[in-house]
Design a protein that fits this description.
heterodimer; A: mainly alpha; MetI-like fold; 2 domains; 10 helices; globular; B: alpha/beta; 4-stranded antiparallel sheet; about 35% helix
Amino acid sequence: MQGTFAINLARIAIIVAILALWEVLSRTGIINPRLLPSASDTFVTLGDLLQRAAVQKDLMVTAAEVLAAFAMAVPFGAVIGFLVAENRYFADVAKPLLFFAFSIPKSIFLPMFILVFGVGFAQKVGFGFFSTIFIVIMSTTTAVESVKVEHLTVARSYGATPWQTAFRVYLPSMLPVLLEALRISMIFNLTGVILAEMYASRDGIGHQIATWGENFQMKQLLAGVVMVAAIAMTFNELVRWVEARCSHWRT
Amino acid sequence: MQPLANVTPLKPAARAGAIEVKNVGQVFRGRSQDVVALDDVSLEIKPGRFVVLVGPSGCGKSTLLMMMAGLRQQTTGTITISGAPILQPDPDRVGVVFQEASLFPWLTAEDNVEFPLALRGVPKAERRAKAQDALKLVGLEGFGKRHPHELSGGMKQRVSIARGLVQDPPVLLMDEPFAALDEQTRMTMGDELLRIWAATGKTVVFVTHSLTEAVYLADEVIVMSARPGRIVDHLQVQLPRPRTYEMLSGDAFGALRDRIWRHIRKSA
C-alpha cells in the first residue's frame, strides 16, 4: 500500500515540476511569454474560455462528431473483425489487405473527404470513422483469437446454445481486449475528428484551436490544448479503470 | 432411435450410469491416407465403477472419452449411457471434468459451479444452494466467492469436479484432470476424488498418462494401443478400498503396473 502511495506521490511531483518549470520559463522571460504564456495565465484563460457560449458550442459540436464517428466505427469494425477472425477464407484474403490499409497515414485522404462530403458534420464524422475503423477491425480480430477453445468446449459439454455461448463465453473472454481496443480507437477517432476540424471547418474545438494559432493567440491556443488533452485523458482513464477490473483473465 | 422413455429410465438403479461402447471406430480422412484413430472399440462399464483409460499418446483414449461426452462423433459404432445412445452433449447423464484452465476466469468459484444450471435457467436461489452443496462435497466450503486466479491448481480442479457434479449426473468423465498438478497435489487429489466417488456412487471414467495413478484409483484399467487405437487389455484391480499410500510399494500393485507398462512399451 505504501508502495502505490509513494508512486502516486512521485507522479504528482513530476506534474507539479513540469507546471512549475513552465511557469518559471515564462515568468523569467527565458522563453518569450508571447510564445509561451505562463501556466497560471493559461489556466485562467481556460476557465474563462469554458464560460463562453461559443466555446461550449464548439465543444458540443466536436463531441457530437466524435460520438457519431465512434458509434459507427466500433460496431461496424467489430463485425468485420469478428468475421475475419471466425472465417478462415475471409481471414486469409483480408488480413494482409487490412495491414496495408492500416499502415497508410489516414490524413492524406482528408482532402478527398472534403471533396466528397463538403465542409461540415459529415466530413468530420466520415473522416473520424475512417481513422478509427481499421484499428477496431484489427483489435477485434485479436479479441476473438483470445477466446480459449477449452472454454468453448466446456460450454458445449453443458449444452450451451449459440446465444449463450456468445454472451457467456465469447463476450466475457473478449472483454479485456475489447476495452483496450475501445480506448485506443478513441485516440484515433479523436485525432481524426480534430484534424478534420483544423483542416477545414466552420466550428468545433479543433477549428477554434487552429484559428487561435493563426491569430497568434497563444494563451487561448494553449488553453485549448490543455482542454482537449484533459478530455482525452479522462476518457482513457475511465476505460482503463474498467479494464483493470477484468485484467486477471486476460490471456 | 430409442424411445424417449429410455433417456430417464424408470428403474434408475438398473441402468443409470451404465456405459456401453459398441464397435466404435474413428477414421480421420487424411490427404494421402486415412488415419484410423479408433479401431472397433467395444467396452462395457457397470454403474458405479471407477474405470481408468490408459495408453500412449495418440491411442485415442481422450477421443473415446470425448465421444462418451457427446462432444465428438464416431465414424462407426454406438455409445450408450444409461440405456440411451449419446448423440450430443447431455448434461443430465454426463458431467465432464477437463484439464486445468477450463474454469471461466471472469466468474467466481460458485458462479463457475452454477454455470451448467444457469444455462438451463434454474432459479438463482436453487442454483446457489446446489453450488454450495457441490463445493462442500469437494471440500471447498467458504471458497465460493474467490476467482480462479485466487485458487491453487488443486483447488481449481476441485471446482471443476464440483461443476461436473452439480447437476448430479450418473456419469462423470474426467480427461487427465490432474495432469497439470505437482506430484503431492496429485496424490492428494486422487484421494479426494476417491472420497467423492465413494460418497456419490457415480460411474467415473478417468483418462490419464500415469500408470501409478491408474492402478491407485481404478476398479478396472483399460489399456489402449496407438495406431490404430485399440483396447489391448482390461484389468480388474482387486486391491481393497480405501486405497492407501502403502499399497503403492506392494507386490500386487507392482504386478498390475508392470502388466500395463509391458503393453504400452510394445505399442510405443
